[in-house]
Amino acid sequence: MCEGMGFDTLDLNYGCPVRKVIAREAGAAMLTDLDRLQRVTTAVVNAVSLPVTAKIRIGWDRESTNAPEVVKALERSGVQWVTVHARARSEKFTGQAHWEVIAAVKQSTTLPVIGNGDVKTPEDALRMIQETGCDGIMVGRGSFVNPWLFERAHRLLNGDDPGPDATPRTRISTAIAHLHDLAAKKGDYAAVLMRKHVAWYVRGLYDNSSLCREVNHCSTPAEVETLLNRYLERLESAPVAGDSEPLAPAAPEWGGEDADAHGSCAAP
Ligand SMILES: Cc1cc2nc3c(=O)[nH]c(=O)nc-3n(C[C@H](O)[C@H](O)[C@H](O)COP(=O)(O)O)c2cc1C
């Protein structure tokens, strides 16, 4: 099915911790039965001409961390590379990622290894490569707050200055462009979908909570845009050039399987 749709690779998700996926013995549940994991993966590899890759977690729980063995089974199945989210299924999206397991996987396989977990700044990206030897990096929640991370990390990894973080004006104009794109696809519902994104774009900025409260009551994209423009004016006339505190680099917390997919705007 994917082959005819223009995709370049087919990535098998053996990291999903969501209850309804686990109940079907899929996602991270596959990490508990390596024979089955190898049979399923081999069947997919044989069925398609696209390169097949896989994303895993480090294990079911911390006591049963088995990522190196899992990657060996994937290697035997013929996948082209693996991504390791350095948390166990039981940890969902909480706690610090265990980068040392990425390093152990890298040492135990010839496959390219993509590291994932807790990369929130360009410096984190560099440190992950230095500490684990991984071949590439996947960024999750860090990109919600900071979509500029990719460009800045790329510069740092090339040995250049990553440059300054995005200004409040860039953040707001990007939020408005994002809103326009979403409105073109979803109409007025974009106002609801944008709530969580607005919260991320203004994370750490001066008086963001009042903006977030107001955005939560908007029912059209035009209303959200007006509020964002007014907020920018307020920021730029604020006593301390826009932001009262440094932009928090921390990624937003994700409530995992029970979180509301649309979220709402809550000032972090
Ligand atoms: C809202 C949300 C949705 C996600 N959806 C997927 C998904 O569909 N497939 C996937 O492989 N990982 C998914 N993930 C996991 C991320 O790709 C990533 O592995 C995880 O967030 C850890 O990286 P981080 O610490 O940089 O956020 C999702 C994470 C979040 C927060």
Characterize the structure shown.
- By secondary structure, the chain is an alpha/beta fold.
- It has two domains: 155 residues, TIM Barrel (Alpha-Beta Barrel), CATH 3.20.20; 79 residues.
- Helices cover 45% and strands 8% of the residues.
- It has a five-stranded parallel β-sheet with strand order 1-2-3-4-5, with helices on one face.
- The longest helix has 19 residues.
- 35% of the residues are buried.
- The site of flavin mononucleotide (FMN) has 16 residues, from loops.
Identify the strand order in the major beta sheet: 1-2-3-4-5
Question: What general form does the structure show?
Answer: globular
Number of domains: 2
Give Rg in angstroms: 21 Å
Number of helical regions: 11
CATH second-level architecture of the largest domain: Alpha-Beta Barrel
**Helix residue percentage:** 40-55%
Q: What is the CATH class name of the largest domain?
A: Alpha Beta
Q: CATH superfamily membership of the largest domain, which one?
A: Aldolase class I
Q: Major sheet: size, sense and barrel closure?
A: 5 strands, parallel
Strand content: 5-15%
How many extended strands? 5
Unique bound compounds: flavin mononucleotide
SSE pattern: EHHEHEHEHEHHHHHH
N-to-C CA distance? 41 Å
- Mean pLDDT equals 91
